[in-house]
Amino acid sequence: MKRDIEKILFSEEQLEARLNELGQQITKDYQGKELLVIGILKGSNIFTSDLVRKINLPLNMDFMVVSSYGNAASSSGVVRILKDLEQSAEGKHLLIVEDIVDSGLTLNYLKDVLQSRKPASVKICTLLDKPAGRKQSIQIDYCGFEVPDEFIVGYGIDYAEKYRNLPFVGVLKREVYSH
Ligand SMILES: O=P(O)(O)OC[C@H]1O[C@H](OP(=O)(O)OP(=O)(O)O)[C@H](O)[C@@H]1O
Ligand code: HPA
Ligand SMILES: [Mg+2]
């Protein structure tokens, strides 16, 4: 797996340090609020699991499964909800947790869907932001790191379902996906 990686962007240690900061900030901002953390699978599985352990508040967790990329290296623009929330969002403070914001299509769609369910608030937390990929603007409330305009894998993020279990975030070699 590692030989398909062009370079490591964020090591395990860097990820851990940044997650500590995000967790502290979220803990401060959601004091006394009914927080529902919504992990967007599959990509944010690992980030969400690590992040909630840095949030020192009572909270609920739920997951949605959406897919826009399938096995492709660029977004199809069509977002499909494959699994919805198991609880009502009404009156709750929703924190959507994503692994990466690229075109912004997935989150724009999801935010609209969740906003329509009368929550108290909807905010977005993403580990990675790739501003160069943006097709629709989207407000990000909590962001781990910005990434360059490259294909990113690791720490939950895949290419054709592989590389999710790399403990770091890296750039995939172009030759792996451009043939
Ligand atoms: O900003 P966008 O261009 O919409 O891209 C971001 C989305 O694409 C990826 O999901 P993918 O559809 O690959 O599903 P996965 O999480 O199961 O890998 C990623 O996890 C985000 O959800
Ligand atoms: O850079 C990326 N890598 C993997 N999946 C993605 N989904 C959106 N952008 C990316
Ligand atoms: Mg994917």
Summarize the structure.
It comes from Sporanaerobium hydrogeniformans. By secondary structure, this protein is α/β, with parallel strands linked by helices. The chain has 4 helices and 9 strands, in the order E-H-E-H-E-E-E-H-E-E-E-E-H.
Tags for this model:
single chain, about 180 residues, alpha/beta, Rossmann fold, six-stranded mixed sheet, three-stranded antiparallel sheet, 4 helices, 9 strands, about 30% strand, globular, binds 1-O-pyrophosphono-5-O-phosphono-alpha-D-ribofuranose, binds hypoxanthine, binds magnesium ion
Please describe the topology of this protein:
Layout: E1 5-10, H1 12-29, E2 35-41, H2 45-52, E3 59-67, E4 80-83, E5 93-101, H3 105-115, E6 121-129, E7 142-146, E8 152-153, E9 169-172, H4 174-177
Parallel strand pairs: 2-3, 2-5, 5-6, 6-7
Antiparallel strand pairs: 1-9, 3-4, 8-9
Bound molecules: 1-O-pyrophosphono-5-O-phosphono-alpha-D-ribofuranose, hypoxanthine and magnesium ion.
Keywords: Glycosyltransferase, Transferase
Protein name: Hypoxanthine phosphoribosyltransferase
Organism: Sporanaerobium hydrogeniformans
**In percent, how helical is the residue content?**
10-25%
> What integer value in Å does the Rg equal?
16 Å
Q: What's the average pLDDT?
A: 95
H-E order: EHEHEEEHEEEEH
Q: How many distinct helices?
A: 4
Give the helix/strand class. alpha/beta
The CATH first-level class comes to: Alpha Beta
Uncertain regions: pLDDT < 50 for 5+ in a row? none
Kindly describe this structure.
By secondary structure, this protein is an alpha/beta fold. The protein has a single domain, classed as Rossmann fold (3-Layer(aba) Sandwich). It has helices at residues 12-29, 45-52, 105-115, 174-177, and strands at residues 5-10, 35-41, 59-67, 80-83, 93-101, 121-129, 142-146, 152-153, 169-172. The strands form two sheets. The chain has a six-stranded mixed beta sheet with strand order 4-3-2-5-6-7, with helices on both faces. It has a three-stranded antiparallel beta sheet with strand order 1-9-8. The chain starts with a strand and ends with a helix. The mean pLDDT is 95. Bound molecules: 1-O-pyrophosphono-5-O-phosphono-alpha-D-ribofuranose (PRP), hypoxanthine (HPA) and magnesium ion (MG). Hypoxanthine binds next to β8.
